[in-house]
């Protein structure tokens, strides 16, 4: 450029790229990232995966698999593969697609120590599910986990008949306004004239975890605007909004599901472990027991919407409090059902979370390991290290000094507890592959969008010619 001068530079810049130049570069970088991930998995003693399957814009079934493995002195989480499933999405099809990828990449199933799924029958079937098929070829001590977030969603999903009726009415009211373009525009004009804090009602979507809490809170806070709008149109759907008992139930549901949303969000994220997530579930269970006792004392300070509404409404408080108490008790029972204590992986393994506080006799360790744990807990230099590092970093760093304890700790910590990364990737996939770009091959693009690794550009460039023929 400098030798030929600026005019020549302008002419060169005006030369258009070929139609697949950008695609080739994306594929090259994605391939390099994939090589790095496969190399890292092969170097790691063992790894864990999370699986989920969904359907994209072309109605193609997509299987996404994330992997967690040890790298240097920490864990790394990466997208392992994004596979299109031909035909049916049975357990056999899913396993065969994943197994073929493992064979092509030279990955050893024997190092797979854990699989996390959303609990669907095709994945978690005891005899013919994907997990059962993986257990036949994986590490003999492999553990399967049901996504903690998905279980939390199942707990909150069950409602008593009284509350379920309110939820059905809410959906009908919102659909009456949002599903019709004219009604939606007129309602927008109404709430703007009334200086409402919300811009519009939210549509309820069953598959979205946070949908219920946000929808209920939004409707409750816009109840006057909705009531006025339905009245002007002589809609029969205004009747529930005129019933103060119904409104009290709506206020409670808006409060309780907003609290569920807070927990749901805290369960999401990368680099989580079973100790952090199960502790949060235990906190919720204890709070529900506390709230139930407070409700029986007619103290509802933890439910601000309900408290404000009952301060001005004339309703049968005893009836409302009884419905709330029954619902809170049912939630505790559901939590015990979906998070049974006998299946809690923390049982006997609390020393992993805090090796300096745990009673050695209660640990699920052999004599030699207990002796080593006593030595570790007596080392004051490791106390500050434990506080400064993450749990995974701490135990990986002790691999040489305390190999048996480190092995047992890493084997449990490396497990995925949620399918959050898969769900997040499906959301990214919706943005990448749209109706206008429905023929796009998304594997490379999705890998680059989800990775934390950097492509080795110097290595990629060494393999390229300066000029290729077209």
TrEMBL record:
Leader sequence segment: none
SUPFAM superfamilies tied to this protein: Ribonuclease H-like
Any one GO molecular function term: protein dimerization activity
Membrane spanning stretches: none
InterPro entries registered for this protein in UniProt: HATC_C_dom, RNaseH-like_sf
Ranges where the HAT C-terminal dimerisation domain occurs: 388-442
Protein name (record): HAT C-terminal dimerisation domain-containing protein
């Amino acid at each position: 450029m400098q030798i030929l001068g600026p005019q020549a530079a302008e002419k060169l810049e005006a030369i258009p790229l070929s139609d697949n130049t950008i695609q080739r570069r994306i594929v090259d970088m994605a391939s390099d990232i994939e090589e790095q991930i496969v190399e890292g998995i092969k170097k790691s003693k063992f790894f864990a995966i999370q699986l989920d399957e969904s359907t994209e814009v072309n109605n193609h079934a997509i299987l996404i698999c994330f992997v967690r493995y040890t790298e240097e002195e920490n864990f790394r989480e990466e997208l392992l593969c994004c596979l299109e499933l031909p035909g049916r999405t049975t357990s056999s099809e899913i396993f065969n697609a994943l197994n073929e990828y493992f064979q092509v990449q030279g990955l050893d199933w024997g190092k797979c120590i854990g699989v996390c799924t959303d609990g669907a029958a095709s994945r978690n079937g005891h005899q013919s599910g994907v997990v059962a098929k993986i257990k036949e070829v994986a590490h003999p001590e492999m553990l399967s986990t049901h996504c903690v977030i998905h279980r939390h969603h199942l707990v909150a999903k069950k409602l008593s008949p009284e509350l379920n009726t309110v939820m059905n009415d809410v959906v009908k009211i919102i659909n009456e306004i949002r599903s019709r373009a004219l009604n939606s525009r007129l309602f927008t004009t109404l709430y703007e004239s009334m200086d409402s804090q919300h811009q519009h009602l939210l549509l309820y979507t069953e598959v979205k975890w946070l949908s219920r809490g946000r929808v209920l809170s939004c409707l409750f806070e816009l109840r006057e605007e909705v009531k006025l709008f339905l009245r002007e149109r002589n809609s029969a759907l205004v009747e529930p909004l005129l019933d103060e008992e119904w409104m009290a139930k709506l206020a409670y549901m808006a409060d309780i599901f907003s609290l569920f949303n807070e927990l749901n969000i805290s369960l999401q994220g990368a680099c989580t472990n079973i100790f952090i997530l199960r502790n949060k579930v235990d906190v919720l269970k204890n709070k529900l027991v506390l709230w139930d006792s407070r409700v029986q004392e007619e103290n509802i300070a933890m439910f601000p919407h309900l408290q404000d509404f009952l301060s001005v409404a004339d309703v049968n408080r005893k009836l409302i409090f009884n419905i709330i108490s029954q619902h809170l008790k049912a939630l505790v029972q559901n939590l015990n059902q979906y998070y049974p204590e006998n299946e809690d992986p923390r049982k006997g393994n609390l020393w992993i979370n805090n090796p300096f506080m745990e009673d050695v006799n209660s640990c699920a360790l052999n004599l030699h390991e207990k002796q080593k744990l006593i030595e570790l807990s007596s080392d004051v230099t490791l106390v500050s290290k434990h506080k400064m590092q993450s749990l995974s970093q701490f135990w990986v760093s002790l691999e040489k000094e305390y190999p048996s304890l480190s092995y047992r700790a890493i084997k449990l910590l490396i497990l995925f507890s949620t399918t959050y990364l898969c769900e997040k990737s499906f959301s990214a996939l919706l943005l990448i592959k749209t109706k206008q770009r429905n023929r796009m091959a998304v594997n490379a693009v999705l890998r680059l969008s989800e990775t934390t690794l950097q492509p080795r550009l110097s290595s990629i460039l060494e393999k390229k010619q300066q000029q290729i023929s077209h």
